[in-house]
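W.,

You were right to be curious about this one. When I first looked at the sequence I had no strong expectations either way, so I just let the prediction run and decided to look at it fresh. Below is the sequence, 585 residues in total, followed by the output.
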Amino acid sequence: MIEITKMSYDALHDLPVGVLWFDKTARFFDVNKAACKHWGYTREEFLEMTVFDVNPHMKPEDWEKHWKSKQKDPSTFEGIHKRKNGELFPVSITDNFVTCDGEVYSCAIITDITDRKEADRQARLADFTVQKAGDAIFWLCPKGYIKHVNDAAKLRYGYTEEEFYEMNILKISLDADEEKFKDIWSKLENEKQIQFEAYHYNKEGKKIAVEISAHFIQFESMDYACTMIRDITQRKNKEAALRGALMEIRELKSKLEAENNYLQEEIKVQNNFGEIVSTSKKFEKVLKQIEQVANTSSTVLVTGESGTGKELIARAIHQLSKRNVRTMIKVNCAALPANLIESELFGHEKGAFTGALNRKVGKFELANGGTIFLDEIGELPIELQPKLLRVLQEGEIERVGGTELLKIDVRIIAATNRKLTKEVEEGNFREDLYYRLNVFPIHSLPLRDRKEDIPLLIRFFCEKLGNKLGRKITNIPQKVITTLMDYDFPGNIRELENLIERGIIMSKGNKLNIGSWFKPNKKKKNTEKILSLEEVQRNHIIETLKHTNWKVSGKDGAAELLQLRPTTLYSKIERLEIVRSKEAM
């Protein structure tokens, strides 16, 4: 309890804050000038009032308890007071018991804390807003250590607040390092606000795509980065899905364009699509085989001499199958360069090799759901044969330069004029591939074995080629038919077609004239010894080796001149027992 002197009493009266004196009955004993100003009462009005008039929350029993305490030291607490106009306002009260002229009074020094309370409320509101924000917020120091986080950060990343305060931001941003963080901080200091995307990792190691908006702030003489981090994983997934859809659309577009180009090329090809002309009893077996296999998905191997209509058989099989809604894709394995055939068959990725400026859809992918016809399959390079084997076994392809295996559903029809069994023996064709292709073999007969079809074919070609050339042939002399039937046609149907075309060009009017220039070679007796095919082949190889000074492989070597692979030529040299003579050394 303090003894109030006149000097201290006068000093209290001059304070800028309110000073209120109360007696034991809670009545005002005195007030200073500031109290009159802040509460709006005159001194005389105050002296008629009690503490309960300015402190609406104070009850008589509270005052009695407060008076009985008569604390030795001042006590400070907050409360609510009421002005004369009824306005309530927050106050900070420092109260003490004092004596004056032997009497005990309660002396309260009261400060209006409205502004401070509002500032505190604003700060609490701001903190509440930050804590309840949907985005994670981090406060970082210039070294990257985490100084403060909001609730969303704890929920999103799975760490406790204590764990965060022991961490550096690099622990959750694994695609950044100290040097990169320094660069980002330097940019933030200069620009004050930056935005970028990154990948973070939560406590469980899950990868999160984030968008970071960083703000440079200074607080209590310290530099901080206030970073608002938004999870954009769903957005990134949607973007990736959209990119995938666009890529698929581009691939489909590319595939459709490739198919359209292929169709345009096929329109230009002169062929008897879907038409087989024959009354031959021998050829009935071939027609029966076509009918048997057409409605299956079995692989077919068509063999026979050049010009016998192997492609025509393949088209008939496709046309009679359930796959005929799609175009049959044709690949001539002999017509493509060895370095391009893989790309042509299986496609390639952009940048797979020099000149691969765009992704290319291969013929197998183009034929998906339909039929692919591999003509001259015996010419397929040995190094590509395992890839074709995988298509047959697994139904999978892989583009050149790609890593993804693509599942396809393609019916394969292959054709060759070679004896594949012999090619297998000589190591030019894989045995396992041969058996995979030879599921259902069909042999296309040479024209000399079905000569009864020649008259029918002559009439067919006259009509077909006559329309093409603008000529109408209605008169086919029996002499022409007899002459052509006496000929063996080593070039088979293709040779007959070419001969009829030349005849139509030479003919005048509607009568077919094959010209006097067509003179089939008559068989002559030959007293000379007929060499076997192996002897002819052996002599030819020896003469070629002599020409190259017995150089087998490499540029200008015998293999190159004979258009054989070096391994094939070595195999033939060994099998034919060709030995370099001492004179040639």
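Here's what jumped out at me. Residues 266-273 have pLDDT under 50 and may be disordered. And, maybe more interesting for your project: The longest strand covers residues 88-100.

Coffee later to discuss?

I.
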